[in-house]
Structure formats: structure tokens, C-alpha cells
Amino acid sequence: MTQILSAAPIKKKITKELKSDCKFLKENGIHPYLKVILVGNNPASLVYTASKKKYCERIGAKCDIIALDEQIELIKFLTIIDEINHDNDVHGCIIQLPLPKHLLHLDVGKLVIQEKDVDGFHPENLYSVLSNQNIETHFVSCTPKGIITLLRESQIEIANKRVAIIGRSMIVGKPLACLFTNHNATVTLCHSKTQNIREITKECDIIVSAVGIAHLVDETFISNKKNQVVVDVGMNTNANGELCGDVNFEKIKDLVSAITPVPGGVGPMTIISLAQNLLQASKNRLSL
Amino acid sequence: MTQILSAAPIKKKITKELKSDCKFLKENGIHPYLKVILVGNNPASLVYTASKKKYCERIGAKCDIIALDEQIELIKFLTIIDEINHDNDVHGCIIQLPLPKHLLHLDVGKLVIQEKDVDGFHPENLYSVLSNQNIETHFVSCTPKGIITLLRESQIEIANKRVAIIGRSMIVGKPLACLFTNHNATVTLCHSKTQNIREITKECDIIVSAVGIAHLVDETFISNKKNQVVVDVGMNTNANGELCGDVNFEKIKDLVSAITPVPGGVGPMTIISLAQNLLQASKNRLSL
What we know:
Two copies of one chain form a homodimer.
Chain A (H helix, E strand, L loop, with lengths): L2 E2 L3 H20 L5 E7 L3 H17 L2 E7 L5 H13 L5 E4 L27 H9 L10 H12 L8 E5 L6 H10 L3 E5 L6 H7 L2 E4 L19 E4 L3 E2 L5 E2 L4 H4 L5 E2 L6 H21 L2
Parallel strand pairs in A: 1-11, 2-3, 2-4, 5-6, 5-7, 7-8, 8-11
Antiparallel strand pairs in A: 9-10
Helix pairs in contact in A: 1-9, 2-9, 4-6, 5-6, 5-9
């Protein structure tokens, strides 16, 4: 029987922990507070930011969505972030991507200070992931962190395993490769220029796809040993307007030992990671 | 015929370029100046720092070795680095490793400011390598940078190739994996916990060993297709006190298409990279 790596039972367990942590922080005078900067009206961004706010409030944290006009002037945009960086009541700040064209030249990972960068995009936070130092107090990017949590909570062994990651983005592929390496896996980072990618994925114990191509990973990527684990980071829309992953779930679900569903797999884990990072940022304040 | 990837002809060519760049900088009022901090009397460190000084002077740059007592007080050590960080006449500073035990708790990559970190160990410089941004003005770690230069100058194709790197250190393995990925290679980062490492190296076009185990890589790591490139980063001492690499050169030299010698391969390339970084740091000052 293929194990379906659903986020639901893990979310239930971690939510309980987060509620308890949040209560403790509030009892100690800290009310965890996230600000989400949203520029424009990208439909997917509206859905994602609303989910983040809802989950923060569910665990007892505060969350405001700062909705900014698509045309916002650069200087005004930077001023708003600067104010948040200096606001002692705010513990975490994220900038929802994508940004409109006139803000794309910004090095977005450096805008929010390291201490409040609960998305884990700041150079200092990525350095922690690369160097495997101070991981406990710094912030690991939410999707990679969520994937590791999902595998560990599902009792999937990581150490000594071979992992193929498809996609080398700074948001998923690269930090995830570092995390798996830190957990003693042997990682092959694949991308659009990789030749014979199926030969690589067939050799690996764990396959992660994070490229944003609907149903890219099908039975031709899978070995015939029925012992592989497949993690699908894709959030694509198919021709019928439906959400679908990078993985052709129906075609491979009986060929592997475990697989994440879309929706209900990596997506919810990303939001859980964000809340964990927010509470960590709040706890860090406590120890000052 | 196996191609021996010797640094000598490349060094000759690049030294000429560096001399010319250095002359240009001096004509524009900037005399490139490196400070090398050396704590204690580690014999290998004495040799390395002397080589670095000699090469800097050969291209026309200034280089001082700041030789400090093995027992130097922490506060004094930090004060010296702080003074160098603030000294406008100094363009680059490196701290020769290893440091004595009482300084090992320091996050050594953060001591020298990014602008003078010509070793490429600062989080901001490593972030550039990871994100493939601002590589031209930031500093890539010297050994990884030297390996890429050696391969490119030797007309070894990198894009679309599969690369196995053995060793996940922050000085070589991890930044080198990022660099190869940035150059469109597909990298598998191997380490002490990797199972069946020979199966991986046999599949790859380029094998880099950077683990510090004398003669680890022998014919059992090599495919029988005679088309692999082997790069040896090892600087080990064998039972007779002689310098030897991670690779058993004699055993595999006829089984591969190209191989670096030890000495005379990666070692000199590391010093060239340091000098390139120093001149880049000096040029960055010019544009201020």
C-alpha cells in the first residue's frame, strides 16, 4: 500500500504545539505578530496571504495583511518596510511574491531584516542553512523546512538516502538541497539543463519536484523497485483551471512507496513552517 | 592521451593579466594591499601564507603577514581585525586557518567585512555564490573559483555535465556545488554518509575530491569509458611525509581523459583566485 503523505495529521499535532507556545509567549508579554506585505491583486497571492493570516490567528498570533496598490512608488514601498523593521511590536514580516515589474530590481531577500525574515530569504538566514549553523534561532525557508518536517513526521528516513531535487530556485531547490545535505542525505540538484534526468531520478530514494510544470514527473521518472518517495512542490493550474502538481499522481501512485498529494501535501506544511518561524522570532525576542 | 590539468600555463597567462590590472590600479591611485593574519606556527600555514605573499608581490600588490602569537588574547585578536576592517589603505584581509583552539568558537567568516573578504567566507559573499547574483563584484571562495577557472581555461565543458563532488565543507564542497550548478552542471554532493559512492562517481563526467584522505579515489571510482575528468583538491601528507592528493594519480591516470596533478594543479589556482579577488576588491574601491 502506498503511503499518502498528507499534511493533515501533522498539522493537527503541530498546531496544538504552536497554540501552546503562543499562549506561553503571551503570558510572558509577547504577542507574536506577523505583517504580510501584499502588492497588487494577484489572485493566487490573495489566496495565499489569506491562508497565512487565518492560520496565524488560529494559533493565537496576530497577523495583518498590508495591501498595497500595484502602482505603489518605490520610495513609499521601502518606507513601509523600514517602519516594520523598526516596529518593536512586530516579530515577523514577509513580502508576498510575485512583486510588480517596477519592484523586481530590488534584492527582495535583503529588505526585511534578518531578525524578522520569517520567510528565510535573507542572506544571513540562507547562510545558516548552507553552513548548518544557528539553524535553531535563524529561519529556514518555509517550503524546504515544511518538506523536511513532513518526511520526518511521516517516519521517512533521510540520512544516508539519495535525493533528486528537480528545480534550482532560491525559494525551494537550493535551500532544500542544503537541508537534505545537512541531514546526511546525498543530493543531486537537477534543473532545466540536466541531461538524462530520468536516469538520475530512477537511482534515488527520494524525488522532489519543484519546477512548476504540470504533471512533469510521470512513470518514466520512477524505478520499478516500488520503494521511492515522491514529494510534489508544484502548484500549477491545468487546462481546466484546476490546481495540479508537478507530479502525475494517478500514474505513479501505485509505483512508489510514498507520495505527497496536491493539494494537502507540501502546501499546508509551508504555512506551518511560517508559523513556526514566527514563534521562533518571538521567542528570540524573549531571550534578549 | 590523458590531459594533465596543470596550473602552470594558466598561471602564466593570468599572472600577465593581473600585473597589467595592478599597474592600471596603481596609476589610478590604488595600490592593492592584502593583509594575511597568521596565528601561531602551523608549518603548513607558514608555507601557504608565504606563497600568498610572494604571489601578491609578483603581480605588484602589497602583502603583509600579521604574525600573531598562538596564545593571543581574544580581545586583542578582534581589535587587530577591526583595525584592518577600518583601514582604508587595505583592500583585502584573510585569516589563515586553522585557528588555535581558544579562537575556534568565533564565526570566522563574519570577522572580515564583506568588502575585504577576499577569501569569500563572509555570509554575503557565500550568498552571492548560492544565489548566482553579483558574482562579478563579490568574492567567490578561492579554491572553488580556481577549480572552475582551471576547467574553463583547459577547455573542459561544464554546462550539461554531471559532477560528483566528494566532501561538503564550507570552504570547498558546498560553494563548489553552487558554482557548478550556476554553470549549468548537475551536481551530486557526496560525503562521509554517502552510500555506494562509487556508483555515483562512475556515472559522472567530472569528479572532484575534497575530503583530505590520501589516495581515497582509485580505479574503483572510475568508469571504464575513459572519458572522465578528475580534480584533486587534497593536500595530504603520506607515511613518508610527502605531499599527496585525495586521488591515486598513478592508478587512474590512464583510465581518465583529464586529471589534475598534486602538486601543481588546484593548489596554485587557489592562490591565483586570491589575487584576482584582491584586485577585484581594489577595483570596487575605484568605482566608489
